[in-house]
Design a protein that fits this description.
Blueprint lengths: L1 H30 L10 E7 L6 E2 L4 H10 L1 E6 L3 H10 L5 E4 L2 H9 L14 H6 L1 H10 L10 E3 L13 E6 H6 L11 H11 L20 E2 L2 E2 L13 E2 L6 E4 L4 E4 L6 H14 L12 H9 L5 E4 L9 H5 L4 E3 L7 E3 L7 E7 L6 H10 L3 H9 L6 E3 L5 E3 L1 H7 L13 H4 L35 H10 L4 H7 L3 E3 L10 H22 L4 H17 L2 H18 L6
Parallel strand pairs: 1-3, 1-4, 14-18
Antiparallel strand pairs: 2-3, 4-15, 5-15, 6-12, 6-13, 7-8, 9-10, 10-11, 16-17
Length: 566
């Protein structure tokens, strides 16, 4: 029987590999496998880990820009871990690869699959001119000790965020919060009884579908390094810390300490308890364990979710029509919140661009990657050409046009298709962060600090109402006024060695599935029993070794980061 089970497992793994390789081959076939279209365009196959779409990209303002400026069109391959692993196993990568973990970069270098970008420096003028410090960091730390450049990091900037809304935060339905009398919330757990009242008062949406306070998804849980329940690891960002960057270690920036996510006083355990309690109260979507992010977003768009962990996490629910009726999501912070403010991203994030060594579209791939390190490239992909969404006045100041405001508010699309930001959002990765200041416009690429003309539409009723009550211009303004910001230290960490990754993967096979079991536990006694069992099993496969490595590396990175601060 044991032999039979092993045979079935091996067969299943083999079939998954075959299907994944077939998917890659199909994508290559559809794109012309490195060929040129009848109108002279080069089709680039791009695997983008953070992308949420796939297929040939066309009929949009930004696809026109890529055609005009670079002579390329993109075939985005499906974002899928099995597909990536299959491509690695086959030794054949698409023209451009964007992946999350530096460990994946190292694996591709070891396999001899990546182009040495140093040998093509002349064709990457923007990258070498605009991010020299980040390039040196990659050579020093993400080159498999070769000193060569194989990857260009994402989101590079030498300035912190100045204005606007931040990424993380407790965002809830503002209209329903006001309906409940706007109670003061001191801790994250205080949202639970409030949201229960909101769900009880509004159990279904307009289509009669069940509403929940929270939903979850599993496709963000795992990565090459290990796996946890992603949603349960968000709390640190609201209490002055972080976990996402450190696998099974939590960094408490407010108190300058680190700890294991398996400690009894960890934020991770608190996050699991938070969702367990929500499930016990009947306000946690029971489909969460079986659904994807895309499926969750469909529910959010339909108004079936009342809480978001991000300033953008409610799908397309926030329409202009609803916002003018004061319906929608706004920041509702708890009094003990400490939001982590990221430092300037001198070395970028680990989402990195790579070019396949054996690409048949070398020049086109180099042009494409370099475009993301050009100020004009980011400006064009984010906002389109000058004269449509944006323009400059007689003094050279950039501003959003009247048509641009309609596009921004999704009242209409660009004349040649698409909404503002699509050129970056579709690929979901960009070399230069949009908070960089354009060297000619002297304003942020994000438009947050652009002047507003007389025709600029006033705030929607929802935003105006929030500003009036909260007495703040935006999230960051509110946090500053209430001393709710904690500065994250700049500490660029090296990728873990193979032995740590191997242990981490085994730990993830324990923690990820058992975390979901804990959230769906029948009662508190089962919650505690499963937690104890998970801790013991994780320790048995070496979690403490992984945590010690991350602790040591984090402390090293904090003290050695100065040479990359430029």
């Amino acid at each position: 029987m044991k032999t039979k089970r092993m045979t079935i497992a091996v067969l299943t793994m083999f079939l998954s590999l075959v299907l994944a390789v077939s998917a890659f081959a199909a994508g290559r076939s559809q794109s012309g496998a490195g060929g040129t279209t009848s109108d002279g365009l080069v089709t680039l196959d791009v695997y983008s880990g953070p992308a949420n779409t796939s297929g040939i990209q066309a009929n949009s303002y930004w696809t026109d820009i890529l055609k005009e400026d670079l002579g390329v069109q993109l075939n985005l391959l499906p974002q899928n871990r099995d597909l990536f692993n299959a491509m690695m196993a086959s030794g054949e990568l698409p023209d451009v690869v964007i992946v999350h973990e530096y460990a994946q970069t190292i694996d591709m270098i070891k396999a001899g699959l990546l182009l040495n970008l140093d040998e093509h420096r002349a064709k990457l003028p923007n990258a070498y001119a605009n991010i020299p410090t980040a390039i040196q960091y990659m050579k020093d730390n993400v080159s498999n000790d070769t000193g060569n450049l194989y990857a260009l990091p994402n989101g590079i900037t030498n300035r912190p965020q100045q204005v606007g809304n931040l990424n993380y935060g407790p965002y809830i339905r503002w209209d329903l919060y006001k309906e409940q009398g706007m109670p003061v919330l001191n801790e994250i757990e205080d949202y639970l009884p409030l949201l229960k009242k909101m769900v009880d008062a509004h159990p279904t949406n307009e289509a009669g579908q069940k509403i929940y306070a929270f939903g979850g998804w599993t496709d963000w849980d795992g990565n090459a390094n290990g796996a946890t329940m992603f949603a349960a690891g968000i709390l640190p960002r609201l209490y002055g810390g972080d976990r996402e960057s450190y696998l099974y270690m939590e960094a408490d920036y407010a108190n300058n300490i680190t700890r294991s996510i398996l400690d009894d006083n960890s934020w991770y355990k608190r996050g699991l308890k938070f969702f367990f309690t929500a499930n016990q109260m009947g306000i946690f979507d029971p489909d969460s364990i079986n659904q994807t992010w895309s499926e969750y977003q469909t529910k959010a768009t339909a108004g079936r979710i009342l809480f978001s962990w991000w300033s953008w996490g409610w799908g397309d629910f926030g329409t202009q029509e609803r916002s003018q009726q004061k319906i929608g999501f706004r920041l509702v912070p708890f009094t003990n919140l400490k939001h982590v403010l990221d430092p300037p991203s001198y070395t970028g994030s680990s989402w990195s661009y790579h070019i396949a060594k054996n690409t048949k579209n070398l020049d086109a791939a180099l042009r494409f990657v370099d475009y993301f390190y050009s100020y004009d490239g980011i400006l064009n992909l984010a906002l389109g050409r000058k004269g449509t969404y944006w323009d400059q006045d007689s003094s050279g100041e950039p501003y959003i046009t009247q048509l641009g405001w309609d596009i921004r508010n999704r009242v209409r699309e660009f004349p040649n298709g698409g909404f503002v930001g699509d050129g970056l959002n579709v690929i979901n990765s960009y070399g230069l962060a949009t908070r960089n200041v354009h060297p000619v416009l002297k304003r942020e690429l994000s438009t947050d600090d652009w002047i507003k003309k007389d025709f600029t539409p006033p705030d929607t009723a929802l935003v105006a109402d929030w500003k009036s009550i909260m007495k703040a211009e935006d999230d960051l303004d509110y946090y500053r006024q209430h001393n709710m910001l904690i500065q994250r230290p700049f500490a660029p960490m090296n990728p873990p060695p193979d032995n740590i990754l191997q242990i981490a993967a085994r730990v993830g096979q324990v923690i990820q599935p058992m975390s979901w079991q804990i959230v769906y536990a029948r009662d508190e006694a089962e919650f505690n029993r499963l937690w104890t069992d998970m801790v013991q099993r994780a320790k048995g496969v070496g979690v403490d070794t992984v945590i010690q490595w991350y602790t040591d590396e984090f402390n090293r990175a904090k003290t050695s980061s100065a040479k990359y601060v430029k």
